[in-house]
Amino acid sequence: MKTFKLGGIHPSENKFSAKQAIKTAPIPAQAVIMLGQCLGAPSTPLVAKGDEVKVGTLLAKPSGFVSTSVHASVSGKVLKIEDVVDASGYKRAAIVIDVAGDEWEPSIDRSPAIVKEITATKEEIIAKVAEFGIVGLGGATFPTHIKLTPPPGKIAEVLLINAVECEPYLTSDHQLMLEKGEEILVGVRLLMKAIGVSKAIIGIENNKPDAIELLSRIAQQYSEIEICPLKVQYPQGGEKQLIDATIGRQVPSGTLPIEVGAVVQNVGTAFAVYEAVQKNKPLFERIITVTGKSVKKPANLLARIGTPLSELIDFCGGLPDDTGKVIGGGPMMGKALTTLSVPMTKGSSGLLIMPSLEAERGKMNNCIRCAKCVSVCPMGLEPFLLMSLSEQEIADWATAEQQHIMDCVECGSCSYTCPSNRPLLDYIRLGKNKVGGIIRSRK
Amino acid sequence: MSKLIVSPSPHVHSGDSVSKNMYGVLIALVPALLASLYFFGVGALIVSMVAVVSCVVFEYLIQRFILKYKTTVSDGSAILTGLLLAFNLPSNLPVWIIIIGSLVAIGVGKLSFGGLGNNLFNPALVGRVFLLISFPVQMTSWPVPLGFDTAYIDAQTGATALAMMKNHFGTLPSTSDMLFGQMGGSLGEVSGIALLIGFAFLLFRKIISWHIPVSIFVTVAVMTGLMHWANPQEYASPIAHLFTGGLMLGAIFMATDYVTSPMSKKGMIIFGVGIGVITVCIRVFAAFPEGVSFAILIMNAFTPLINKYVKPKRYGEVIKK
Lengths: 443, 321
What we know:
Chain A has 14 helices and 17 strands. By secondary structure, chain A is α/β, with parallel strands linked by helices. Among the domains of chain A are: 122-279, 3-Layer(aba) Sandwich (Rossmann fold); 372-442, no CATH class. The longest helix of chain A has 19 residues, at 424-442. Chain A is globular. Chain B has 321 residues and is mainly α. Chain B contains 14 helices and 2 strands. Chain B has helices at residues 18-40, 42-66, 77-87, 95-110, 123-134, 136-139, 161-167, 175-180, 192-204, 211-230, 238-243, 247-254, 265-285, 292-309; strands at residues 142-143, 157-158. Chain B starts with 17 loop residues before the first helix and ends in a 12-residue tail after the last helix. In chain B, helix 10 (211-230) packs antiparallel against helix 12 (247-254) and helix 10 (211-230) runs parallel beside helix 13. In chain B, 59% of the residues lie in helices and 1% in strands. Chains A and B meet through strand 15, strand 16, helix 9, helix 10 and helix 13 of A and helix 1 of B.
């Protein structure tokens, strides 16, 4: 069984919502659509208070190179544009729409037919992906069209589809594969055409044998698509780890996957690309897992962007009494939310509700130098050292940089494994922030 | 629900803890403890009990009344230091000497550096070597293993296999006696089989990795093997070297002490090879018949240097094919 070479952990999987058929979440009475829907700059609004919008109407355009288009996920009237608290805990600009009915833009193909034939050219595919606001749906939300245009001089050799879903609890990608396998493979072929490669590998963790079997069967009609089962090991779905596991290449420090000829896209993104190109549908809804040990009805929901997360929780049986923490995303890399009014965004892959007993961190002790953080680090770093360099009174950023602090992918394996409960990743993040600032100031 | 807890990721933890690791090592020491009771009878029990209790009491008293901070005795590390110290002592050692050894191990070896995690040298070995230098007679009178008949006071004593090997006298124990532990020596070190069972447990529970013990075993086996092959009359066989003296105990339980051994796999192998080389050199060429304790302490001193210069293999270090 293929896997990445360095480090890794195996946390309890807790996939309570596995094999729960995708349910459509109710449309909210008021949708709150963040202008920042991607990793880059927030988009520039094109609508004003009082404007009527339909589902799929363009609300905001990109404000720079790394930015994206934002579309209405509901029909109704623009109520206001105001700052609301988002998943990061900060207040950021959002368009608030009062919902009336559910009227879609007529250009969207709502028929259930699967369109397998690809007629769009390479350029048309990339244009459509940009126009319809497709971003990486694994959680990083990097605008997809930028990844589809490799920088000059770099040649893509292979498309890797990240269907690993190594985060515990989350099952949205798994369920999407089970229900939309044909569409996903069309999306994969669209992506291949867009980047001009003749080979694609879909990496799936081996805890989803049904998805592996189904996609392998569908892929028989496409000789250029290979399904690659991967060992259940976190962070198998880390971009760099996936490249190592599937094609045995390692991305050199400080460079992008294209350096080793790889372009990595999430399986959910492939589906979104299918819908954009073949069905003319902008990205305004996605699958989100709502789960947790005390959640009454853990589910995989098809929900509109802008739905307040509290409404999704209500739909899944309400907030459990023992709730201590609500996490946007999975338990390893997700963000703890400060309020439940946070709206769903394009990056919302999961909503995890943790009982308070599990939500608090254990008491921190001295580092006993057991080296467990070193042996689990998938990047081959020394987390204990990076923490102590960041933690000491006169922090040593120069040494931290020499010790490759910027290579950290923030997977959290070190903090997860530390027997002394040391907040290794907290301090490494602090260090990365400082060192990143120092590196930028040199340019 | 009143308030939401907010903290950075990761939001889950393995549940591993310092005490789980310490008690895990203690469980791994149980077979050797039982073997020591079988071979050395009541003396093994007395020495072990005195060392464990006095280490725990000293840790508590020093932390509570001298350093004045919350005591950490519950993490199990003082119990472990006590038991390891006992394992390195002859089973007829007077109680007062054991108490002095415990005080040095905990007070000097551990707490004077800032407690668990900050000590440079293995505390049990600091205590043991202090006693060896201060009380050479008592520390090198080895009761003959007569099972439950072995007396604590005025025990019948004899030489260790290593002393016989060094000075070419007496009849070496048979190979099976060496493996099972029917020979003179410190109470916890004699039974290689019992120690190897503990090693298997430590590996199975992923408390330690194989790198340090195996690199010590291989180094000692290769070096003594070559000498034995060149001159079997002068030099003992590798099996005799591996299964006598403190080699098994030291390699599996003392050299692998988290705090005082290197962090990277490469560093661990260098550390293990260093211990193997120094041990063989002391055993074969120096005045002492046994050198595992000294070898580990010397390599402990090199650990910070190894950590500084030997780094783990990084992702992306190998340039693409």
